[in-house]
Write a structure and sequence with these properties.
Elements lengths: L2 H21 L27 H25 L2 H18 L6 H13 L7 H17 L2 H5 L2 H8 L9 H7 L2 H14 L5 H4 L4 H5 L4 H13 L6 H5 L3 H9 L28 E2 L10 H28 L1 H4 L4 H10 L11 H9 L3 H38 L8 E2 L9 H5 L22
Length: 439
């Protein structure tokens, strides 16, 4: 599909969704009030959807996951997966306005684990678990045809370019940091930062603030040349999908038969998710390999401890956005607000009946939580850096072009480049033309 066709298709989808939006507006979640003076709840939780419609959402999710998995593994059709992703963009994106989504549901699950009084809705739990289950069996087919965020980025990926491997590795650590911060803030009841800073929900709801619209447009513009920048370098749920996909029972393969080393798929993947052959079984001497293993065994624990200590030292900064910590900080010097309007946090405190001692005790308890959480967050990030470094030091022997099971989105782009037919073609015809799909 050409670039003009994709633009026209996107405009048609937006127009149709607007019509559906007016017809079924009673089922929407209310628009979030991020900029008002109202005292915002400690976490951003949407109002409950009608039970029947919540069940419909879960059924649609399960059916779409099943369809995307079948299209990727059995039909091996990029075109069909692309049209499935457009349906997901229309339904889960514009009609459902990006909520509830599997990415944000991560925070609800964490809050339910750490806060006994919070009861997670079954639909939210299903949106979190179902993509992981399908990924465990079939790879990241959720990313290929179900996630509306990925579908929106695919629509504008007109001229994707390969990323420098070192830059790709550095940017690839950001989702792990984002995941750790999201868990820390959700577990402490501070905020749902994934929902607050979601770049696409404002577009789905047509109510984005200027700052979030600028962020979203920056991602989309960069997505013209860098395929799926949010999915690759920000999405925290993608980290979980990456881990689970490595254990997947079945996974998309580039060729249904033996690889014939035609190299046509070598540059087909815009996500750098194809592992190239390494035919030198052991290009290094044994002493070199031993030294690398010793270095890795020392570096990984060092990064873990260093990261944990750094995180603990930053616990006050990390806790700064917590409402209790912020209120205690304001009350330490209330005179600085004498020449301007008093913040609504202090106005709410004056009507709450709490003493300054109580506020400070609550803030101290939160700081202790963040001190422990800072250690855990830092250790996690340090471990990630150590493992990434170890993976770059070690080489793995392989003879074929194979999808990286963790990073591959099962989008089937590479399938269209492979000349090996399902009916058993095992030799490449030199003058055989190959199709290249741009979507």
């Amino acid at each position: 599909m050409g670039n003009k066709g994709r633009v026209i298709l996107l405009l048609i989808i937006v127009f149709l969704i607007q019509i559906v939006d007016m017809a079924y507006g009673v089922q929407r979640f209310p628009k979030p009030e991020f900029e008002s003076g109202y005292l915002q709840p400690e976490t951003l939780q949407p109002t409950a959807r009608a039970p029947f419609m919540a069940m419909v959402d879960v059924i649609v999710l399960a059916l779409t996951l099943s369809l995307a998995s079948w299209l990727a593994l059995k039909k091996r059709s990029r075109i069909a997966i692309f049209w499935t992703s457009l349906f997901s963009l229309a339904y889960f994106g514009f009609y459902r306005q990006g909520c509830v989504c599997s990415v944000g549901a991560l925070q609800n699950v964490v809050l339910a684990l750490f806060e006994r009084s919070y009861v997670i809705p079954l639909a939210v739990l299903a949106f979190f678990i179902l993509p992981l289950i399908f990924t465990l069996f079939f790879g990241r087919t959720f990313c290929a045809g179900v996630c509306p965020f990925g579908a929106m980025q695919d629509l504008i990926s007109f001229r994707p370019r390969k990323m420098d491997p070192r830059l790709n590795a550095i940017l690839g650590t950001f989702p792990y940091i984002y995941l750790g911060l999201a868990i820390l803030y959700a577990a402490s009841g501070t905020d749902f930062i994934i929902c607050r800073y979601d770049p696409f929900v404002g577009i789905f709801r047509f109510n984005a603030t200027f700052g979030m619209l600028f962020f979203a447009m920056s991602l989309l513009i960069s997505g013209i040349f860098i395929a799926r920048p949010y999915c690759r370098y920000l999405c925290p749920y993608g980290v979980l999908l990456n881990w689970v996909s490595r254990l997947s029972w079945k996974h998309l393969t580039i060729t249904p038969a033996a690889c014939i080393q035609c190299r046509l798929c070598e540059s087909s993947c815009p996500y750098d998710a194809i592992d190239m052959p390494l035919t030198g079984r052991n290009p290094e001497t044994r002493p070199v390999t031993v030294r690398k293993l010793i270095l890795i065994s020392l570096l990984v624990p060092f990064f873990v401890v260093l990261g944990g200590w750094t995180g603990s030292q930053l616990h006050r900064t990390l806790a700064g956005i917590n409402s209790k910590v912020r209120l205690a900080s304001m009350l330490q010097d209330p005179g600085k607000f004498s020449d301007r309007a008093e913040p609504f946090e202090i106005a709410a405190y004056r009507t709450s009946g709490k003493t300054i001692i109580q506020v400070n005790e609550e803030a101290s308890a939160v700081l202790r939580q963040f001190y422990t959480g800072g250690w855990m967050l830092g250790c996690f990030i340090g471990m990630v850096f150590g493992i990434i470094l170890a993976s770059r030091l070690l080489t793995r022997y392989r003879t074929d072009y194979t999808p990286n099971k963790g990073a591959c989105y099962s989008c089937a782009r590479c399938v269209d480049y492979c000349p090996v037919e399902k009916n058993g073609l095992t030799a490449l015809q030199p003058d055989r033309p190959t199709r290249k799909i741009l979507i």
